[in-house]
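Lecture 7 notes: from sequence to structure.

We start with a single chain of 106 residues. Read the sequence below before looking at the structure.
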Amino acid sequence: MLTDEYTAKILLATFKRKLSAQEISRKYGIPIAACYRKIRSLEEIGLLECVERILTQKGKRKNLYTSRLKNAYVFFEGGRLRVRFHLTTGVIRDFGGDWTGVDSKG
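Now the structure, written as tokens:
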């Protein structure tokens, strides 16, 4: 997921400041529908959080998001590719599995 360009842009954009989906979309050239999909996915796995809901001058609600990612590490050990996320909450989450799809014949 982190290798996805839009996901990386969203996490970087919200690393030190809270932004709305519309601001992220406009600043980083991410189509708004894709931006909302990625935000939803990032929230589901705990890497992004809605930290504030504000009311715009037009009376619409706007969510402001911030990254919960503090550090990310990629490991390749014993034929397994793993990613370890250190979250701002102190939680450490590991993702990974067998490295498949690579032709071992070189």
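The two ends are 26 Å apart (CA to CA). Keep this in mind for problem set 3.
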